[in-house]
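Work Package 3 (structural annotation) set out to generate three-dimensional models for the target panel prioritized at the project kickoff. During this period the team completed the workflow that converts sequence records into discrete structure tokens, so that structures can be stored uniformly alongside our sequence database. As a representative example, we reproduce one entry of 236 residues exactly as it appears in the project archive.
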Amino acid sequence: MVLIKRHFIKKAIAQTKIDEYLAKRFYRAGYAGVQIIQFPLGTKVFIDAERPAMIIGRRGETIRQLAAIFEQQFGLQNPQITVRRVENPDLNARVVASRIAVFLERGAYYRRVANVMARRIMNAGAIGAQIIISGKLRTERARYEKVRVGKVYSTGNQVEYMVDKAVMHITLKPGVFGIEVTIVKPAKPSDYVRVKQPEEAKEFIEEIREELERQRAAEAEKLKEASPEEAKERGA
């Protein structure tokens, strides 16, 4: 049992190190995550990114370099790398955080960047979004700027399957900047309740009325059947 636990802990640590390495090297490519699957002949590595071409490189040169690094530094056996494009990058917190980092590196105004990104997230269909940029934004004293739109869940079961969160740090001339992005993806929460319109509930109301009428008719027939006996008892 202990050996099994060590195996999975070692595997998780290796994946975390690879994830940190890729996030640091390919954040300009909109890096979104990595999935590592071991099979008898080697290891399959799936890398998700907004711009796969920047990770693949010219004629696959970067992929070959990555395969050598994975094998030598991280101990993966015969790594086979596949780069996948993120389906909806505006709903991926990591991609949005990397975009903000790139804009800040280019000298864009932090408040404008946060508002534009929040608007793009909401236009993509998100329920809510929150962007926090911290650091020496305008003065020598560190502070933070928060932009929050829509509904943002911070607790509850729905956080596990609806909320995507990413934290990123970049070093600029004033110092280290922190970027935190929280996106609530379009889905129904576990406590979701919708009040139906009268037109939608019309059939259901008719069914209840018919059922009540049938119950009343059955009770009336029972009373008719019981009335002669009651009359005899009264006569006695």
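The two ends are 85 Å apart (CA to CA).
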